[in-house]
Amino acid sequence: MAAPLNRIADPPRAADVVVVGGGIVGAASAFWLARAGHRPVLVERAAALASATTAASVHGVRAQWTDPENVAMIRESLDLFARFPEVLYLPPAEADIGLTRQGYLFASTDPGQRDALRARVERQHELGLADVALLDGEAVRRRFPWLTREVTAATFRAGDGWLDGRRAATLFARASGAPILLGTEVLEIERVGDRVVGVATSRGRVATDTVVLATGPFTAGPTGLAGEPLPLTLLRRHRLILAPHPGIPQDAPMTIDADTGAHWRPHGGGAVLAWPLPEPAMPPAFPVPPDPSFPALVLHDPRGVSRLAPFWRDVAATIPAVDLDLVAGQYTMTPDHKPLIGPAAHTVGLWLHTGYSGHGVMGSPSGGRLLADLITGRVPDAANPFRLGRFAEGVGLEVERGVL
Ligand SMILES: Cc1cc2nc3c(=O)[nH]c(=O)nc-3n(C[C@H](O)[C@H](O)[C@H](O)COP(=O)(O)OP(=O)(O)OC[C@H]3O[C@@H](n4cnc5c(N)ncnc54)[C@H](O)[C@@H]3O)c2cc1C
């Protein structure tokens, strides 16, 4: 039996490292810091871990990216997730995170997209993802007969999939052995000159010279704890869960409309649906009020999920409204849609771990390992592709286009 969460009632007077934020990013940070020999304390203002953005996620995990940094990061994460019991030193039954590798399918009805999809796959092969397949309309319908005849091309990687990111976060926190303060808000990073000397919390002070900010959307903006401007913007994103319905194929992959961005995957006899539509940037919020028109949009709009998979029309016509569970959360976006991992610019001892731009569940296991390597000095920041300085340097800023 693995140790339970190491919850503590009161803040310690001092800590080696304070990790602020108990979502998957903070939990993975605490785990890798502990593994590297540190003794982190994890501070979360909510009453439970992983109850904010992480709880709103679709929990998809795909190596099918096209830029080298994301491919490397998420391949590493997928490998860690696949070996979770071994990595966490837990019995397999206790480290079950529901990793389901039914693949990720990007499909298009636009003949003009065929070349772009081919170019993506060629790039992925160059980057070592030899198992991404380019399929024409007929081949993809043979495999997934519920797709519309209008699909002209698709890319598929069978090893991609989804998991339970909340459970992964809780297990990371447990396996870290870190003392965990729940219901405790960090109010201020205390500094002397340009150095961190502690954190002021809603339940007392903790002296420390090292703080990791893993506060998700709450790292951004003038109210953020960093105390320096960061290139982060927040976008509202929705997730709709549908209760079990016989019309939803449970052996389907994560199915993404490469032309509109609408996507879905099976979930417990039903499905999870999402669609990153254009939204104005907004300040950090929790909870994030959802747009009540989202379910009708994703289910009934001709650009929604029924465009590629017409069975959704029947499901949408027959599913009772009570079987729909809508939540919203925020993507914490950076200008190049890659995370921000590494030291802050103006405060010695302050480390940033955020900005996953919508892929923090799949990125943070690897990102946490990188953060710990940076803090211990095993990896110099100059060799870190996710350093804050890249924006000023203008390097590595290529944004993944055409997909989520
Ligand atoms: C609709 C939606 C779908 C998504 N789908 C996917 C997906 O399929 N795959 C994927 O990889 N990612 C996905 N994401 C993104 C993913 O959910 C996030 O990248 C990830 O959860 C970010 O984790 P986090 O720990 O940084 O943030 P959070 O989970 O928000 O954790 C931050 C924590 O910090 C705490 N906190 C904030 N301020 C303080 C303070 N002052 N003191 C103490 N605690 C504080 C908060 O209470 C919170 O618990 C999705 C996101 C959304 C919204």
Give an overview in words:
The two termini are 39 Å apart. Strand 14 and strand 15 form a beta hairpin. The radius of gyration is 21 Å and the shape is globular. It folds into 2 domains: 171 residues, 3-Layer(bba) Sandwich (FAD/NAD(P)-binding domain); 156 residues, D-Amino Acid Oxidase, subunit A, domain 2 (D-Amino Acid Oxidase, Chain A, domain 2, 2-Layer Sandwich). The protein has 404 residues and is of the alpha/beta class. The longest helix has 17 residues. Flavin-adenine dinucleotide (FAD) binds next to helix 1, helix 2, strand 13, strand 17 and helix 10.
List the helices and strands and how they pair.
Layout: E1 17-20, H1 24-35, E2 40-43, H2 53-56, E3 60-61, H3 68-82, H4 84-88, E4 104-108, H5 114-126, E5 133-136, H6 137-143, E6 153-157, E7 161-162, H7 165-176, E8 180-181, E9 186-192, E10 195-201, E11 204-207, E12 211-213, E13 233-242, E14 254-257, E15 263-267, E16 270-274, H8 294-300, H9 311-318, E17 324-333, E18 340-343, E19 350-354, H10 360-376, H11 390-393
Parallel strand pairs: 1-2, 1-12, 2-8, 4-14, 12-19
Antiparallel strand pairs: 3-7, 4-6, 5-6, 9-10, 10-11, 13-16, 13-17, 14-15, 15-16, 18-19
Helix pairs in contact: 1-7, 1-10, 3-10
Flavin-adenine dinucleotide binds at residues 20-26, 43-46, 50-54, 56-60, 185-186, 214-216, 218, 225, 237-239, 274, 329-331, 354, 356, 358-362.
